[in-house]
């Protein structure tokens, strides 16, 4: 049977303390115990259902975590204060000094900077590879490799990782396959395709209102308990804890994620086709011209589409900046990093979200100067949006009026 992530969220039933249709928000950092013995057992991790201290867990955070675990089809999940809080905790939990990571070379700038500049200080080294070439991935595995890390849909180049192929490699070398699924919630369910750990930045599509940062780690009970262990758990000891009030508000937004993703995908598909017809080098996983199109199709939960992210190349950074400024002036979206908002967001990755990546390496991976990354919004009338965008493109001279 097909995996139905949105139904699994819908099927959850949480009530508030007083029968409220939303769970009550836990507004406490610490919790009382009726007996001292239970407090001791909770410290030891042996008292299921008891709360100790909110850096460890809180009812509101558990509600959100369980909803996200239902979405991803994992045993459980742990929410965190940001996506980076989730990513760094997972990697610090899985790797010790002397260990090695194989990572896609096109990952989120913060992840790249962490692996390139920060983790080596702790003796954890990374080889960056072209994730679309499984044979290169396998060749990069060493005796001390512990983790294979990638994004389902990569940032910002929208490369598609063949998760089933990567899972076979990771299983045959006894690695943990860790997948950041931030760009493709609902559309792709990495755990169902063999990922051991699935991470999201909740900041993006899942929360969808650009009002907070947040993250989650979805995995087995054993791994999530390890992360929260009071003696050696990275989430517990590094402390990237989400606040309960935020967890409650993100849970409410999660419930409309399926409707939003369908609209993001619909709008992005429409624009991607138009931009491609207009002669722009357009990257969108829903286009047949995308090298990862077939792999995405093979992996996807169809109803949610190919997602809301696309890129076009307008030739130069100056033109990209000019176009983005004009589109913002015409209220077609915001010149801003991040993604998943109701408004379209656009930025030039080379000088923003991927600026951590040295220029030389940007070139090598195909991150060109004129690249604009779009997170397509929930526009009600995408045809109207396109017409207005086209006017901007003609005005800044990146679209030939002869052609249109
Ligand atoms: C934004 C982002 C992150 C980091 O998440 P934060 O919530 O900003 O810490 C990680 N991975 C991807 C793919 C992202 O887009």
UniProtKB/TrEMBL annotation:
Gene3D superfamilies: Aspartate Aminotransferase, domain 1, Type I PLP-dependent aspartate aminotransferase-like (Major domain). Keywords: Aminotransferase, Pyridoxal phosphate, Transferase. The keyword Protein transport does not apply. InterPro entries: Cys/Met-Metab_PyrdxlP-dep_enz (IPR000277), PyrdxlP-dep_Trfase (IPR015424), PyrdxlP-dep_Trfase_major (IPR015421), PyrdxlP-dep_Trfase_small (IPR015422). GO terms for molecular function: transaminase activity. SUPFAM superfamilies: PLP-dependent transferases. It holds the Pfam family Cys_Met_Meta_PP. Its cofactor is pyridoxal 5'-phosphate. Belongs to the trans-sulfuration enzymes family. This is Aminotransferase class I/II-fold pyridoxal phosphate-dependent enzyme. The lineage of its organism: Bacteria, Pseudomonadati, Bacteroidota, Flavobacteriia, Flavobacteriales.
